[in-house]
Amino acid sequence: MKNLKLVAARPDFSRSIIDVQGVKFGQDFVVIAGPCSVETEAQTIETAIAVKKAGAQMLRGGAFKPRTSPYAFQGLGLKGLKILDKAKKETGLPIVTEVVDTRDVSWVGEYADVLQIGARNMQNFSLLREVGKSGKPILLKRGMYSTLEEWLNCAEYILAEGNPNVILCERGIRTFETYTRNTLDLSMVPAVHKETHLPILVDPSHGTGILSMIEPMSLAALIAGANGLEIEVHIDPPSALSDKDQQLTVGQFERLMKKLEMTRNFMKTLSDIDELDALGKPEVPQAMRAASNNSARIEGELKTFADAVD
Ligand code: PEP
Ligand code: MN
Fold it and tell me: Whose CA is nearest to atom 8 of ligand 1?
């Protein structure tokens, strides 16, 4: 892709690992969970405790909500950030929250561990430059009308300001399909891995807008190679002040986390097959075989395989 200097895949195919207080995007499979909006202290802290218990590594929650209607709940602003801070102190979960205005970047950054740039602001170039200057880790969501190239150029804006800590997030795009809220474009996961060294998350909540589709699309995202998920969870979805139809209950989230764990175990078998394939090739140097974590077992499997073929 033209003009991508800093985000483009490296010649040695090495990938960026973005460390947010020990949570390693690009290395671990990271699940960010929490309510669409911070509404009250009790709602946020209860959700934070529950998602942490279920295995989430980071807490999300909007204090500034970009809403279609100016009359809809706009978020609690500073009060919301203070609640997120309390939830962090209570659980130890680092915070992801959206920033919508260049004037807010520095002070929101005092509360947030990761600043989220929402879909509607993906191409807000002054905001991109400002978060670039902040040096904070940035979760850059894909704009709902944006191509991969446009999205990656937005990441380039942030890196060009000297901030290498960008995590991409596919959250669905507008298509002719109206059944779902958006069309979740999972093909972007391998595309992002091919074109860049940045980690990519998937947001199945905004990506589908339909409760029953969140679990299957989360599992599909993991299988497609996503580096993690951002999922909306609420202690009482029907009472939520925003996105009440797409927020998982705590029970639904716990169930999903168990299935993700099982799917990850299954995926280890898949990567073993790739490794086995690579190790089986005569041109693979001995050093690489030795470097393989599983070399002894895989060599054993290779032998069994060779014996069976004989
Ligand atoms: C959000 O994650 O809170 C949000 C508003 O998502 P998006 O910007 O993808 O619509
Ligand atoms: Mn939402």
Answer: 118
